[in-house]
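Interim report to the steering committee. The following record documents the input for Protocatechuate 3,4-dioxygenase (202 residues).
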Amino acid sequence: MPVELLPETPSQTAGPYVHIGLALAAAGNPTREQEIWNQMARPEAPGEHIVLVGHVYDGNGHLVRDAFLELWQADHQGCYDEDYNQDKPFNGFGRTATTFDAGSEWFAYTIKPGVVNNSAGVPMAPHVNVALFARGINIHLNTRLYFEDEAEANAKDPVLNLIEQPQRRETLIAKRCEVEGKPAYRFDIRIQGDGETVFFDF
């Protein structure tokens, strides 16, 4: 009996679907009352409040102005909470997108995560898990954002140390900066080419 291959479905194709369905403001559409977006932490949330910001570049070094990102992280104590509720001061899941304006940056307003133990009980450095969706990418790309001022923890991180070339690890390190006077970290993602961001297969 011959094996029938199934064709790709819209869920595997970023195209316009992602922004129309999940990034309404970026697509120029009215937003919904219960929107999962880039305000992950309210002012009353405990922990160090930070801004995450960055660009997305293609293999030619051009800005990708219609990229969509999902972020998932632990709280300031290193605990993941799978119960998303917009009434809570902090949710460890958020969404953001690059824009079509001159800056074409994505932003997320959150708190700095704490140290998390992996399934083997080994501490992992503070990090944010990032899923990237963009035109030309049929299956989203997974990466991680680490913090440059956590050098000691980064040096011991079991995931970073899986990357054999030290210079490649640098593509996962967000640089400390300021955004509108607030502590921030810049994390630029390069999909291909020189300085390509490390992506994970999981």
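Residues 36 and 94 are 6 Å apart (CA to CA). The committee is asked to note this result when reviewing the revised timeline.
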